[in-house]
Amino acid sequence: MFLINCPYCGERDQQEFKAGGEAHIERPKQPTELSDDEWAEYLFMRKNIKGVQFERWNHAHGCRKWFNMVRDTSNDEIKAIYKMGEKPPAQ
Amino acid sequence: MRNKYSVFSLIKNALSYHENWQRAWKDPTPKKEYDAVIVGGGGHGLATAYYLAKKHNMNNIAVVEKGWIGGGNTGRNTTIIRSNYLWDASAGLYDHALKIWEGLSQELNYNVMFSQRGVMNLAHNLQDVRDLKRRTHANRLNGIDAVYLSTEEVKKFCPIINTSPDIRYPVLGGTLQRRAGTARHDAVAWGYARGADAMGVDIIQNCEVKGIKRNGDSVEGIETTKGFIKTKKVGVVAAGHSSVIANMAGLRLPLESKPLQALVSEPVKPIIDTVVMSNAVHAYVSQSDKGELVIGAGTDDYVSYTQKGSHQIVEGTLNAILELYPIFSRMRMLRQWGGIVDICPDASPILSKTSIKGLYFNCGWGTGGFKATPGSGDLFAHTIANDEPHKLNAAFNLNRFVSGDLVDEHGAAAVAH
Q1: Does the pTM exceed 0.90?
Q2: Is the alpha carbon torsion for B80, B391, B189, B5 positive or negative?
Q3: Chain A 56-85, residues with CB within 8 Å of chain B CB atoms
Q4: ipTM of the shown complex
Q5: End-to-end CA separation in angstroms for chain A
Q6: For B10-22, how does the pLDDT look when each residue is reduced to its tens digit (9 = 90+)?
């Protein structure tokens, strides 16, 4: 359990938020051209990093907006938060 | 030579004040090379080593464990054992394990305290009733014992459950698997370790894997904190840390690692002689031999390796427990902890070869791996020894995420994941 600084609402309890998994997984531009292997990679395979990971979160019980987070999964320390569409900070 | 545990050895050792018991397993330094190395000294990893030595005559093998054996999820789960899964592939896998459990203490000469006290799953709404009835039928078609219980039968089987129709989520019925139950989790790890060690397996604790050495598409060995170990076969059984090991080999797995919590109460006299699970309100409870209520909570929804977990998850579980069991309202909780579970998108495990020759993964057991420990070890040993899966774990290959032939136990298994 930790506090999350929503870029729209400010600091709130983590239980107001919903984790949306790994960030920056690009949606296939030509879905009809994709092989089964590429579909598996897009749909199922995850980095699942122990350490600094880029994630999507949703302020589900607040403004309901999506944003990105850089978090260390080994200690739940939040390194950075940035809005959708913004460039991820260099790590 | 390993001394056999018996009433006579107990008496003999009592005469020397229990100070001269033989070590249950050695503390070897790693050899330069093994025929196979198992990464992860939990129940599944130790069972794999045990069956590799016992059934496949692979005695020149090692288990490497970064901490101490059984200190990960083996020591952190709520010890529930059952096989009432919906799909045929899962039923085959989990019932294979349950059948081994039934003779395990005798086989290992180690009391794993397997107690077939029954597992009851509750239904709280009409959809639950339909799902549980469907699962009962599916189980019986697969030769797995299952009965559907009415509300009155639930009350009769476990009288402390509040079956009043005016609670928030009333009990409309339930299922019962009588062969299901619990076992002593540490004993499972220790029993397999002792058995494997007796057949020559090296169990190397405090030895963390730092890298996997590849030569093109095949495995050459592993880098560890105790030096390089040469081997052509590596079986990874690292639970929540499977992705970490996979990344070392340049592989990606369809896993997310999340904290799952459990807690126990202060010990009390016997009050609940079975295991009761309710996935709709997320309340799992049984009682340990020490008298503690053993309660399983849910997972957090974010990836984390912290072995902690959020407070509201425990609070939600306890709310549900109190609604179902008003008698527990003044119980105090003694301990709470978390373990990191590796969850697959279809909530089924992976026991599989990989694209790298000699590298095998046994992972993705998610929130319910303990029950499968003996079966998982047996089938994974078969897969490693023959470089081919056994027919019981063929469906649980890594390629199912490419072919789409998933074993979708999300919501179909008897629990919420």
Answers
A1: yes
A2: positive
A3: 73-76
A4: 0.95
A5: 24
A6: 999 999 999 999 9
